[in-house]
Amino acid sequence: MDARQLWLRFEPYHDVTYFTPESRAATDALGCKGGWMGYFGMRAAPLGAASPELSTAVFYNFAPRMVSRALPDAWAVASPSTYLRVRLEGVDGALRRLLGSVDTAEIAEAATLARTAALAAPIAGRPLAAANRALPWPIEPHLALWHACTILREARGDGHVAALVAAGVGPCQALALYAREHSLDPAYMRTARGWTVEEWEAVSDLPGDLAAVERATDMAALAPWEALGAVGTKRFIDLMTPLALRIASANEAMRVNPMALDPVRELAVPGWNT
Predict the structure, then answer these.
(1) Residue 274 pLDDT level (bands cut at 50, 70, 90)
(2) What is the maximum alpha-carbon separation in the chain?
(3) Which of 7, 89, 16 lies closest to 252, judged by CA?
(4) Rounded mean pLDDT of 4-8?
(5) Which of 151, 202, 204, 226 is deepest in the core (most CB within 10 A)?
(6) Cα separation, 191 vs 185, whole angstroms
(7) What is the DSSP string of 132-181?
(8) What is the pLDDT of residues 217-230, one digit of tens each?
(9) Cβ-based neighbour number of residue 37 at 10 Å
(10) Which NCBIfam families match (predicted)?
(11) Does pLDDT of 272 surpass 60?
(12) pTM of the entire structure?
């Protein structure tokens, strides 16, 4: 099983949480001051009224000053439970627009498989995965699939943070290494995560084996798929590939992203599932 190939299929489905017009409209309606306040409010909400320090720790690669511009002010705008409600409303609107019909047998089947995998994702040492798994499961299949993808995504992300910490790679350093390896614009990456030029330059030449970190991340992300089994995992891949491609093709907000994620290019390769 290729954990990265699986990630490429559930990450686009999860990303509608934050990076769609529907998501932005939902948090703007609450009174959030800018998209990033909405992002931090929605992503941190499963943890409760999390402090900027806790949120910075678990999100890892954001500069502390960027987080503190949004938190704790976001909790004065609305409660965590309200952020959870509006993020689900934004997800629902975005998926209906991007996918057209969401009441399909394929989505319902994918939701069942994804739930099995998500419930098998380890949560020890994975705070964001644990916090999201503790939330109620949506009833509608397309939203249950999103919830499962969110648990799987945050479980992988938590494991990635653990791998970075174990390798001694700091938050800004990880971004600098990743930008260099994937030919991403350093100015864009600094802006996207709130680091200064001085902070970036201070870590840009530090050594770090990012390939080893990625291998450790992939290994730590295999448990859900081992529990689902080879047949179930193959079926999940077959069901999620057209959904991921459709979302990625239509979601303009994710065309450029700090993860260098390009499902349209990476999934549209002949023979990817052989």
Answers:
(1) very low
(2) 52
(3) 16
(4) 92
(5) 151
(6) 10
(7) HHTSPPPSSHHHHHHHHHHHHHHHHHHHHHHHHHHHT--HHHHHHHHHHH
(8) 999 999 999 999 99
(9) 20
(10) SCO6745_fam_HTH (NF047719)
(11) no
(12) 0.94
Q: How far is CA 152 from CA 90, 98, 186, 206, in A?
A: 20, 21, 29, 31
Structure tokens at 49: 């009224």
Read off the pLDDT band of 199 (50, 70, 90).
very high
Question: Which among 74, 97, 76 is positioned nearest to 23, based on CA atoms?
Answer: 97
Six-digit token pair at 65? Answer: 């000053």
Rounded to whole angstroms, how far apart are CA atoms 217 and 202? 26
11 CB burial (10 A radius; 0-12, 13-18, 19+): buried
- For residue 63, what are the contacts with CB-CB under 8 A and spacing of at least 6? 171, 172, 193, 194, 195, 196, 199
The b-or-e profile of 133-150 (16+ CB within 10 A means b, else e) is: beeeebebbbbbbbbbbb
Burial (CB < 10 A; 0-12, 13-18, 19+), residue 76, is: exposed
- Residue 271's pLDDT is 46
**Cβ-Cβ contacts under 8 Å for 206 (sequence gap 6 or more):** 173, 176
Return the minimum-mean-pLDDT range out of 37-46, 114-123, 177-186, 261-270: 261-270
What pLDDT shows up at residue 97? 96
- Distance CA(163)–CA(139), nearest Å, equals 34
> What whole-number distance in Å separates Cα of residue 59 and Cα of residue 55?
6
Residue carrying the six token digits 């489905």: 13
Which residues contact residue 217 at a Cβ distance below 8 angstroms, ignoring those fewer than 6 apart?
3, 156, 159, 160, 163
